[in-house]
Amino acid sequence: MKKLLAEFFGTYWLVFGGCGSALFAAGYVTPTGVHLGIGFLGVALAFGLTVLTMAYAVGHISGGHFNPAVSFGLWASGRFSAKDLLPYIVAQCVGAIAAAGSLFYIWSGKTGNVIDNTSAGAFASNGFGKFSPDGYSMISCFTAEFLLTMFFLLVILGATDKFANGKFAGIAIGLALTLIHLISIPITNTSVNPARSLSQALFTQGEPLGQVWLFWVAPILGAIVGGLIYKNLLQKTDND
């Protein structure tokens, strides 16, 4: 139960901090017209910092997945038990949805804040085609999510390998997620995390919810391929 609670709180913090920065701070303009928003760079850093901080806070309890795709990738690499997949994914999704609910409650407290589910990035949702921030096709978005999640798993597995310096694993993983967002916010609004995508889409509804399948399939497939690559091609053994 402690492991599942750690995954709940870790995923909650990821969605609350990352999506919250996009909703409240990315494009902030003061009443006098001064632009103080944090932009893409700030949002990318926010996502990375959520993972970095929770990796050190609760990673020693649950392994610090906070992401169904990561759980699948660790399973594919042989580092995670299949029997724990479903409980972890449920805890992650519940944590993400709870965070999205908290964000919606705060966000709706400002007059005029209404979710426009006909526009890209509404309520920090992910999407492709018309719902891609810069209009990228479904194939382009699928490829980006697949490749970025695959490399995310390579970083996670390498940084947490028994031969690596584990003290710095959280930093490497957090910076990797920051880099991933710097690359792909204009493409898909960045997912690489099915729970994060589902939580925002549930509140956005409309086509963003209809497109959420891609942000489950592509990251999970990418994570599994990343896990298999690391296990079979890169993982060092005691005999190497």
UniProtKB/TrEMBL annotation:
<dbReference type="InterPro" id="IPR000425">
    <property type="entry name" value="MIP"/>
</dbReference>
<feature type="transmembrane region" description="Helical">
    <location>
        <begin position="85"/>
        <end position="107"/>
    </location>
</feature>
<feature type="transmembrane region" description="Helical">
    <location>
        <begin position="168"/>
        <end position="188"/>
    </location>
</feature>
<keyword id="KW-1003">Cell membrane</keyword>
<dbReference type="Pfam" id="PF00230">
    <property type="entry name" value="MIP"/>
</dbReference>
<feature type="transmembrane region" description="Helical">
    <location>
        <begin position="36"/>
        <end position="58"/>
    </location>
</feature>
<feature type="transmembrane region" description="Helical">
    <location>
        <begin position="208"/>
        <end position="230"/>
    </location>
</feature>
<keyword id="KW-0813">Transport</keyword>
<dbReference type="InterPro" id="IPR034294">
    <property type="entry name" value="Aquaporin_transptr"/>
</dbReference>
<dbReference type="InterPro" id="IPR023271">
    <property type="entry name" value="Aquaporin-like"/>
</dbReference>
<feature type="transmembrane region" description="Helical">
    <location>
        <begin position="12"/>
        <end position="30"/>
    </location>
</feature>
<keyword id="KW-0812">Transmembrane</keyword>
<keyword id="KW-1133">Transmembrane helix</keyword>
<comment type="similarity">
    <text>Belongs to the MIP/aquaporin (TC 1.A.8) family.</text>
</comment>
<keyword id="KW-0472">Membrane</keyword>
<protein>
    <submittedName>
        <fullName>Aquaporin Z</fullName>
    </submittedName>
</protein>
<feature type="transmembrane region" description="Helical">
    <location>
        <begin position="135"/>
        <end position="156"/>
    </location>
</feature>
<dbReference type="InterPro" id="IPR022357">
    <property type="entry name" value="MIP_CS"/>
</dbReference>
